[in-house]
Write a structure and sequence with these properties.
The protein has 272 residues and is an alpha+beta fold. It has one domain: Creatine Amidinohydrolase (Alpha-Beta Complex), CATH 3.90.230. It is built from four helices and 14 strands. One of its GO terms (molecular function) is metal ion binding.
Length: 272
């Protein structure tokens, strides 16, 4: 069942989304050469607790994975692209890191992800990350009221293919609102004009992810971490988006560098 949210409910989701966006931006600054992934995980745990938020990942038990997920972040490095388990790994120069997180505040959820490079960037990695970001932008632009879900999927696929990448459709975006995963599924490739109608009030997480030289994946022994089948590098970008009468509203925007209006994650902005 798909629940359309009211304007007030979308505003409440936006409160959660702002926190998610701010914390992701903060975590990308914490990540650096020489930093342990577990330090990033524990930093996020502290911030989430301070805010009074609840991680959507903790104790998550889908059909895949081995046992409940007992972390608040998915931290995926290099050839790992989705559901990476935080573990004792010290970041090295040139590592490509993807951070994915979802939390609930006052009963409303938001989910977002970003990829970045620590230390010296490889141009091929920069291109890969850019492709996911441009695909996400195209998907958001296609998320128009009265359109079709396939418009979003087709926009993602078109960008991926224009960059020379193939698309894996086993995992994609999803509805979100009172819980992290709701209907509908949002595929990362598809045909425009097909699928359910995009009505105002629909809230979805849109998340293009790509592997550099394959569209095949494999799982680590932990049952969670998903990697490119050929060991090539990967990237992942995601925002929570609401369909409104005026168009798509991104609920998980991250503060831009130098944005004085952005408060540190977990703290309210003060009036000037």
């Amino acid at each position: 069942m798909i629940e359309l949210k009211s304007a007030e409910e979308i505003d409440r989701m936006a409160v959660t989304g702002r926190f998610v966006g701010e914390l992701l931006a903060e975590l990308s600054g914490v990540a650096a050469v020489g930093v342990n992934l577990m330090d990033i995980e524990h930093h996020a745990r502290r911030r989430i607790k301070e805010r009074g938020a609840v991680s959507c990942y903790w104790d998550y038990s889908p059909s895949f994975g081995r046992g409940p997920f007992r972390n608040v972040l998915c931290l995926s490095v290099n050839d790992a692209v989705l559901h990476g388990l935080p573990h004792d790994y010290v970041l090295r120069d040139g590592d490509l890191v993807s951070i994915d997180m979802a939390v609930t505040i006052d009963g409303w959820s938001a989910d977002s992800a970003l990829s970045f490079i620590v230390g010296t960037p490889d141009p091929a990695d920069v291109k890969l990350i850019e492709a996911t970001e441009v695909a996400l932008e195209a998907a958001i632009a296609a998320a128009k009221p009265g359109g079709r879900l396939g418009d979003i999927s087709a926009a993602i696929g078109a960008v991926a293919h224009s960059y020379g990448y193939s698309v894996n459709n086993e995992f994609g975006g999803h509805g979100i609102g009172r819980t992290m995963h709701e209907a509908p599924h949002v595929a990362n490739n598809g045909r425009a004009g097909r699928g359910m109608k995009l009505d105002p009030g629909l809230t979805i997480a849109v998340e293009p992810w790509l592997c550099r030289t394959t569209d095949k994946i494999k799982y680590d022994a932990d049952g969670w971490t998903i990697r490119s089948a050929d060991g090539s590098r990967t990237a992942h970008s995601e925002h929570t988006v609401a369909i409104t009468p005026a168009g798509a509203r991104v609920l998980t925007l991250r503060p831009t560098p130098g944005d004085a209006s952005a408060a540190p994650a977990g703290k309210p902005a003060t009036a000037s």
